[in-house]
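tool_call: predict_structure(chain=1)
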Amino acid sequence: MDQQKNDEKNRYRYAAGHARSLTLLVREGTIGREDLPCEKFLRLGAGALTDAELLAVIIRTGAGGKTPMEIGRQVLSAAGAAERGIANLCHLSLGDLMKIPGIGQVRAVQLKCIAELSARIAEARSRPDMRFPEPDTVAACYMERLRHEDTERTVLLSLNSRMRLITESLISVGTVNRALITPREVFVEALKNGAVNIILLHNHPGGDPTPSGEDLTVTESIREAGELVNIKLADHLIIGDGCYFSFREQGIL
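tool_result:
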């Protein structure tokens, strides 16, 4: 019973803190208390909230004469949510967020941390046993991490004979349109990890996973080098914006 009372007090305190900047609107009758994002959450659950309402709950209090909801809408507008959805929040830097009225450094850090947590949750859900027998399993695991990067990054997955992950390594951070990798650095890392199979992944920041001529050349040179050291290049995936290209699926490997 005491715990239940404490829970009710905590809910009330949180709702009161969140609603403080909206009190005047409630008193004026512009909005009903049941329409406050936190109150709506307590009645209907998180799934009933819009993207702006979810951000308002996180932002909690208004600033500069704007309510948490209005600030949340400005965040979505800055993220270009109409074109790419709230996932584009990952592309906003701290500086971008802090340009929004009502978003200081602390709030900007909180929003970036929430975006990172969301990406990690999506990744954790997609790889419960850390085995990668098929390209779509690999893509599902790494899509949210790599699709939002602004530069090309190359990740090496070192796998055992049963395609179970031994470890992953970030082996290259390139430019907007080029990942800089060589067979030597790939296999130095793979041999160190005791890999029998490897999978390479890299992203295309532009969103189109179609391989370039350089992607094709590098993939072939790594495949040939793998044969010399008895480590198989099982696949090379290019991650785009919600899509991917698998050299294995396309019959190139």
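agent: The chain has two domains: 2-121, 127-246. Proceeding to next step.
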